Amino acid sequence: MFRYKLIVLFSFAAIMANCSTPSFQKKDNGIIVSLKQKVPNSVSTVRLEVISNDIIHVSASPDKKLPGFKSLITDIQPDLQAKWDVVKKGNSVILSTQTTKAIVSLKTGEVNFTDINGKTLLEEQHGGGKTFTPIEVEGKKGYTFRQVF
Predict the structure, then answer these.
(1) pTM of the predicted protein model
(2) CB 32 within 8 A of CB 43
(3) Torsion on CA atoms 143, 60, 72, 31, rounded to nearest 10
(4) d(CA 109, CA 127)
(5) In a 10 Å sphere around its CB, with 0-12 CB exposed, 13-18 middle and 19+ buried, how is residue 130 labelled?
(6) Residues β-bridged to residue 84
């Protein structure tokens, strides 16, 4: 009986630990990072898509899911030959290609880019530089977006 209670206790602790920490999912062309919102309309989801070794497309949303519509700005086709990998290191997830690293904070969702040797290429404001403000235009709800580097 004691062994059964111990197993249940450890299972519960493991489930609670996974629920309390942000997570990421590896997809065919990149990753999706899910964050716990600390304030309303802060970043909740960050998606990184590998376009090429030098281009990583970043999308973010205060919602748990990103919109599924196609971009009106660009129509970049991913280089399916680009090799990439992802690792979790401390409070960050690092997506690496042959030339570039994108580092996502699991606490704030901030994204920083470095070359393969760690030299900073682009750094988002510390603490997270993304802000979303809800708007409604002609009866459709959305957000305005601001990002600070």
Answers:
(1) 0.78
(2) no
(3) -160
(4) 8
(5) buried
(6) 97
Please report, for residues 22, 53, 140, the alpha-carbon distance to residue 30 in angstroms, rounded to integers and kept in the order given. 17, 12, 30
Q: Residue 127: pLDDT band by 50, 70, 90 thresholds?
A: confident
Question: Are 6 and 13 a contacting pair, CB within 8 Å?
Answer: no
**Do residues 21 and 107 touch, judged by C-beta distance below 8 A?**
no
The sign of the torsion formed by the CA atoms of 134, 103, 27, 54 equals: positive
pLDDT in tens, 31-47: 999 998 778 888 899 99
8 A C-beta contact, residue 138 and residue 129: no
Mapped onto helix, strand or coil, the DSSP state of residue 9 is helix
Reported residue count of the chain is: 149
Are the beta carbons of 108 and 127 closer than 8 angstroms? yes
CA torsion sign, 39 to 141 to 26 to 116?
A: negative
Alpha-carbon distances, residue 145 vs 16, 88, 113, 115 (angstroms): 33, 27, 20, 27
